Amino acid sequence: LQRMLSIAVEVDKSPNCSSCKIADVIFPFVLNIPVRNQREALLNTMESHLLRCKLLEMMFQHSCNVPTTLPLSLSKILHFLGHSSVLLQYQDEVATWQRWDEMLHYLSLLLLSYQNVILAFPLAEHLRSSLNERMDLIIQKAKPKLQDDDDISQLDIHLKIEDFLNRMQQVLGQPFPLQIQEKVCMIQ
After folding, report:
1. Which residue, 61, 97, 78, 88, is CA-closest to 187?
2. Beta bridge partners of 64
3. Among candidates 109, 99, 90, which has minimal Cα distance to 51?
4. pLDDT score of 124
5. Which domain holds residue 26?
6. How much helix, strand and coil, in percent to the nearest 5, is found in the chain?
7. Which of 68, 70, 92, 113 has the highest CB neighbour number within 10 Å of its CB?
8. Which molecular function GO terms apply here (predicted)?
């Protein structure tokens, strides 16, 4: 299935457009997966970084208490850190911190996938371009164009992380589990 989805994204003249269409179809099914490890298995095994980005972006947009119209960018990922909640279904009762842990896992997965789409090694660059255009861009050694919203400062990151940690402290009301601290450091 993952290989078929990856091919479906790649063969289109506009991988960006096809990944949006495929993510629109998959998204309701992902929301109804009741077990965390099943959701993670689907997202972790996704071969298309572009499709994974679109699907995770939709999940965060869905759980965001302050919607944004920013294009997918580092600024938008920081926005998700500051405004997302944990609205996914759960089959079992899990601790609140585990729900936040899952959200942070998906945020780091979104960040890594986005880096692969935009900044990664030469064969993965230009994932938003068609296969023919991508080969020409690689031959020309053209660097992917960053968006204005990818220009964020260390201060922006620090402030968003501090806001997130304050929000976590209010929600959990206790010291954070080590897993949460490690994921926050990794995202930072």
Report:
1. 78
2. 84
3. 109
4. 43
5. 1-187
6. 70, 0, 30
7. 113
8. SUMO polymer binding
